[in-house]
């Protein structure tokens, strides 16, 4: 399955997928605003029936790209869709001549952390108590900071 660029018209579908895959989903308005930002790219993978089943949000800075979100519908996990989106993120890193791809992930999200490590991401640090507690009355959760650096970074100048 090939990723496709997503725009404001897919904001409803992105918000719906986000509600199915994350504890702290973004609203339709957030996705619409992101799709309008010149320094952001939204990518998705559609099922044969045309349903959005995986998505990724990239935010571009002068030297880095931040992987703001990657999500795969629960029914479609373990089929290589996350791998496909990460390969595209790396391609965008190389073609836009940025130096690093950055992300943060919940400490407890071992499947995502393993996926990122398989793709060459390294742990850079931790943000203590960054994420809301997964359950009411629970403890906030740390964010693990990770990055992927190109072997031979390109100068943006």
Molecular structure report:
The mean pLDDT is 92. A hairpin with a 3-residue loop joins β3 and β4 (64-72). The protein has helices spanning 11-21, 28-36, 81-95, 110-118, and strands at residues 4-5, 40-46, 52-60, 64-72, 100-106, 122-131, 141-149. Helices cover 28% and strands 34% of the residues. It has a single domain (4-149), classed as Gcn5-related N-acetyltransferase (GNAT) (Aminopeptidase), CATH 3.40.630.30.
Based on the coordinates given, report the CATH architecture.
Answer: 3-Layer(aba) Sandwich
Q: How do the helices and strands follow one another from N- to C-terminus?
A: EHHEEEHEHEE
Reading off the top of the CATH hierarchy, the class is best stated as Alpha Beta
Runs in which pLDDT lies below 50 for 5 or more consecutive residues are: none
Rg, Å, rounded: 15 Å
- Give the strand tally: 7
Find the structural class using helix and strand composition. Answer: alpha+beta
What is the helix content?
A: 25-40%
Number of domains: 1
């Amino acid at each position: 399955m090939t990723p496709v660029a997503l725009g404001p018209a897919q904001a409803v579908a992105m918000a719906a997928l986000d509600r199915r895959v994350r504890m702290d989903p973004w609203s339709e308005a957030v996705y619409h605003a992101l799709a309008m930002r010149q320094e952001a790219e939204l990518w998705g993978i559609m099922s044969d029936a045309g349903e959005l089943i995986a998505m990724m949000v990239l935010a571009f800075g002068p030297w880095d790209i931040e992987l703001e979100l990657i999500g795969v519908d629960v029914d479609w996990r373990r089929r290589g869709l996350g791998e496909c989106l990460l390969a595209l993120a790396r391609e965008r890193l190389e073609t836009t001549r940025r130096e690093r791809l950055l992300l943060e992930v919940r400490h407890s999200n071992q499947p995502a952390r393993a996926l990122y490590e398989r793709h060459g991401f390294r742990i850079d640090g931790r943000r203590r108590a960054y994420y809301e507690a997964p359950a009411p009355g629970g403890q906030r959760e740390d964010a693990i900071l990770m990055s992927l650096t190109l072997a031979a970074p390109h100068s943006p100048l």
